Amino acid sequence: MRLTASLARRALVASAASLIGLAAITGLPARAAAPAPAQRGELFYVGMQGDELRGVRLDPASGALSAVGTVDKVNRPFWMVRHPTLPILYTGADNGSGVVIAYRIDRATGALTRIGQAETGGGGTTNLWLDPVSRTLLAANYGGGSVASIRVKADGSLGERLSLVKNTGSGPTPRQASPHAHGVILAPGGRFALVSDLGADRVFVYPFDRKTGRLSEPAAGAAAHYVGAAGSGPRHLEASPNGRFVYLVNELTADIVAFAWNGVTGKLTPIEKVSTDAAGFTGVRSAAEIRFGPGGRFLYVANRSDGAMLVYRADPRTGKLTLLQRLSAEGPTPWAFDFDPTGRWLVVAQQGPEKLVVFKVDPRSGLLSPTGKSLPSPKPVAVTFVR
Q1: Phi/psi of residue 175, each to 5°?
Q2: pTM value?
Q3: What is the mean pLDDT of the chain?
Q4: What CATH number does residue 122 fall under?
Q5: What residues contact 27, with CB distance under 8 A and at least 6 apart?
Q6: What is the residue range of 39's domain?
Q7: Is residue 26 part of a domain?
Q8: Looking at the 3D structure of the chain, how many domains does it have?
Q9: By the 8 A CB rule, do 186 and 129 touch?
Q10: Quick check: helix, strand or coil at residue 217?
Q11: 1 in a domain, yes or no?
């Protein structure tokens, strides 16, 4: 809806806020009003560590950011994923048992309309993966140490939970007393889900049936789960575009493990381990996000040991990484990042100075350049552009 009078806008926002509050009590879907009329620019959403989702637009010509405003109140929206063909956004949240919420996106205003939710069966849902082939959403539960599969209907709304598998194991650090599933991807080939578990120091390899959307425990004699170095804290995973390699970023040791991937047997074979820390670094180590850039030639990593963004060239034949660039992330705690649809801009969620930071991307070299452009944002933890 487009509103032309400021009084009408205020009335609608107040009404929507009341409806959202009622929905939180009753469990009914709610419409979050856009705080502004139709705007131009690339739309993306930011999850806050507290209880808020915000909309932001990026000017594709200059990289400047402008706030759309708060689009919903939701507890700990640590990860979002967009539907590949529909104007639908999914976010994980924490209501004590874990939940995924589905929204319809109004691209003109940035408003989100809740169209349903599904329980994930484990607290602290922190990572999502959507498989459009099987119309299944995979959800990693950090608090529950588990991963769930959830049916996605033809209209993008959520159906029933199809399966739930629980991880096992622990590690030597205080954060590793029990399993904490931090990331999940459907591996190339579509036959296995890979789950990076910070608490267990493992990458779990679970068979996935695309016909039923169900996860299962490995059969006897199947390829074993990957067991990482004690105290490494596996965080997130990224597969190469050619499907031959998988890359793991370890949070607690701030390094990357490159694997050769066998999509038939489900076996991960380590190739090399690369530190993301600066030479001679002796402080507390931490790494956060890992993603391939547009085109799939360059791999980007956020390092929180000393606040840096790193750019690697990934060899498509060997899987090995070559460091091309290490530059300041414009703050000490880069948490998450995403590329805009043009591939020319990278937006980083900075928790330290509590802002969104924009870098320019050279599509030929993959290198990043500071722009000086940013937008205040309270404790951002997730950034997702919607195409």
Answers
A1: -80, 0
A2: 0.90
A3: 91
A4: 2.130.10.10
A5: none
A6: 34-385
A7: no
A8: 1
A9: yes
A10: coil
A11: no
Between the alpha carbon of residue 215 and those of residues 207, 210, 280, 300, the distances in Å are 6, 9, 43, 29
Check residue 29 and give its pLDDT.
42
Spatial contact of 91 and 66, defined as CB atoms under 8 Å apart: no
Residue 201 within a domain: yes
And the tokens for 224?
A: 């074993």
CA distance 187 to 309: 25
What number is the average pLDDT over the span 349-374? 97
Looking at the domain assignment, is residue 161 inside a domain? yes
Question: What is the full DSSP assignment across 263-321?
Answer: TTTTEEEEEEEEE-SPTT--S---EEEEEE-TTSSEEEEEETTTTEEEEEEEPTTT--E
In angstroms, the CA 288 to CA 301 distance is: 7
Q: Give the span between the Cα atoms of 363 and 365, in whole angstroms.
A: 6
pLDDT digits (tens, 9 = 90+) for 363-383: 999 999 999 999 999 999 999
Which is it for strands 112-119 and 287-292: parallel, antiparallel or unpaired?
unpaired
What pLDDT does residue 328 have? Answer: 98
Give the integer Cα–Cα distance in Å for 230 and 379: 30
**Strand ranges of the sheet holding 287-292, from the earlier edge strand across to the other edge:** 287-292, 298-303, 308-314, 321-328
Q: What region, left, alpha or beta, does residue 27 occupy, with left being phi > 0 and alpha being psi -120 to 50 degrees?
A: left
Residue with tokens 């990076």: 196
Secondary structure class of 13 (helix, strand, coil): helix
Report the alpha-carbon angle 355-387-73, nearest 5.
50
**Residue pLDDT, tens place only, 128-155:** 999 999 999 999 999 999 999 999 999 9
Q: Give the closest residue to 105 by CA, choosing from 132, 133, 128, 82.
A: 82
Chain-centroid distance, C-alpha 79: 5
